[in-house]
Amino acid sequence: MKTGLLHLLDVRLEPVLPDRRLFLRSDEETRFVRLRPTTQLFGIFGVCLLVAWATIATAISLMDSIGSGNFRAQAERDQRTYETRLNAMAEDRESHAVAALAAQERFNSALKQVSIMQSQLLASEDRLRELEKGIDVIQSTLRTTVQERDNARTLAIELQASLQGDSTAMRPAAARAAEAEATLEKVTSALEMTAAERDLVIAESAEAVAHAENVIMEMRLLDEQNDRIFRQLEEAMTISVSPLDRMFENAGMDTDRLIRQVQRGYGGQGGPMEPISFSTKESVQETTNLDRANRLLEQMEALNIYRIAAEGVPFANPVKSSYRFTSGFGHRRDPKTGGRRMHNGVDFAAPSGTDIFSPADGTVTFAGWQSGYGNFIKIQHEFGIETRYGHLSRIRVKKGQRVSRGQQIGDMGSTGRSTGSHLHYEVRVDDKPVNPMNYIEAAYNVF
Questions:
Q1: How far apart are CA 348 and CA 420, in angstroms?
Q2: Which of 75, 98, 189, 354 could form a disulfide with 412 if both were Cys (CB 3.0 to 4.6 A apart)?
Q3: pLDDT in tens, 85-102
């Protein structure tokens, strides 16, 4: 049956692929190989398959190479963009910090001016009260003098009547009249002096009132200037503190507990910042400014605490060069056995020898070989946080060594239980593994 089908196929293919013979000649004999049409068809088909396979394989290889190059270029562009953004944010943060310091200096200068103006205003008020008392005394003296003058005039009139009615008593009455005139001249002179003193007191009172009005106007201007300074400081503190507050919250850290721990560790002698007090007689505006100043001091203290805490928390990425994120935190398929296992960290793949950096300040608690991890480093940070680095090709720190944020601690490799060059990075809090990306992503828009 098969022979009949092949023969029929040979007959059909004969016009296209005629029967051919290949002669093989040697010194002793000549042999030939018959190539039937079906044999030629199968040979052509095999060659076509081989050519198609080679073409497809070459195309796939080229596409993979092009895609890999594009991915690397994109990764480099993303890395440059990320670094540019980090630099811009760092410059912006520094500019805000400089503005905050300048505003604080202006605020302190304004407080000194307010204190001086308040002292002048209190002195003016005391002087005004003294002048009012002096005016009251002068007015009382003036009333007494006027009464005495009226009594003297009445006495003079009585004396004149007596002189006209009794000539025998003319001489004593004349003496009494002279005395009355002398008394009247004294009273008149006293009245003129009192009037002059009254005019002087009134002028000084007007001058004191004008000075007090100027002081009040200057106080208002100072209040407006202080309000602008307060607004600038409040805006600067909001811009500086709010991102840090969200960063720690997004990392799953209790900010109140963190502040208490930093305050215990950095208490020192001298105590916390004392509230500002303007004077013993505080107005509503002064009380408002006092509350705003104390809130700013609390925010500045929180900013300083966050800055200290951020140095000891692994917010930075341990790999600064280009890399591929090859495995996340959680359950995954084991690359060796194929089974499901818990992966307590994240994997960053890059060429062997890539620099590995400490993401925060801390102390090296282990540096050596450990089964499964290969060359392995453990660093203890603040707040019960520990970071781990596995599969290193080289270790550049020693046990007990203090390391700073951004300090190189090793080189990437493929030691231990590994399928290729990468960094196995873990973060543990109170010896419990947590997702390291929580810290890295929380600081993405801050550092």
A1: 11
A2: 354
A3: 777 777 777 777 777 777
Burial of 410 (0-12, 13-18, 19+ CB in 10 A): buried
**Cβ atoms within 10 Å, residue 43:** 12
Same domain, yes or no, for 140 and 223?
Answer: yes
- With a cut of 70, say whether residue 372 has pLDDT above it: yes
Cβ-contact 350, 422 below 8 angstroms:
yes
pTM: 0.47
pLDDT at 241: 67
Tokens found for residue 392: 């290193």
The answer to whether the beta carbons of residues 298 and 274 sit under 8 Å apart is: no
Verify that 192 and 298 share a domain, yes or no. Answer: yes
On whether both 195 and 116 belong to a single domain, the answer is yes
Question: From the centroid of its chain, how far is CA 363?
Answer: 26
User: What's the rounded Cα separation, in Å, for the pair 152 and 148?
Assistant: 6
Convert the pLDDT of each residue in 395-439 to its tens digit: 999 999 999 999 999 999 999 888 889 999 999 999 999 999 888
Tens digits of residue pLDDT in 56-93: 888 888 887 776 666 677 777 777 777 787 777 777 77
d(CA 401, CA 367): 10
Cα–Cα separations (whole angstroms), residue 150 to 158, 187, 188, 363: 12, 10, 11, 101
Within a domain: 289: yes
Domain stop point among 276, 311, 346:
311
Q: How far apart are CA 124 and CA 208, in angstroms?
A: 7
Last residue of a domain, one of 254, 284, 311: 311
Domain that holds residue 421: 316-442
Does residue 30 sit in helix, strand or coil?
A: strand
Q: Are strands 402-403 and 362-370 parallel, antiparallel or unpaired?
A: antiparallel
Cα–Cα distance measured from residue 326 to residue 87, given in angstroms and rounded to the nearest whole number: 27
Look at residue 107 and tell me whether its pLDDT is greater than 70.
yes
280: three-class secondary structure by DSSP: coil
The DSSP-derived string for 107-145 is HHHHHHHHHHHHHHHHHHHHHHHHHHHHHHHHHHHHHHH
Q: What CATH number is associated with residue 341?
A: 2.70.70.10
> Does residue 167 sit in the same domain as residue 306?
yes
Q: How many distinct structural domains can be found in the chain?
A: 2
Residue 391 burial class via C-beta count within 10 angstroms: exposed 0-12, middle 13-18, buried 19 and up = buried
Q: Where are the beta strands (DSSP E) in 262-305?
A: none
For residues 35 and 241, what is the distance between their CA atoms, to the nearest angstrom?
Answer: 87
The DSSP symbol for 346 reads E
pLDDT digits (tens, 9 = 90+) for 152-187: 667 667 666 665 655 444 445 556 556 666 666 766
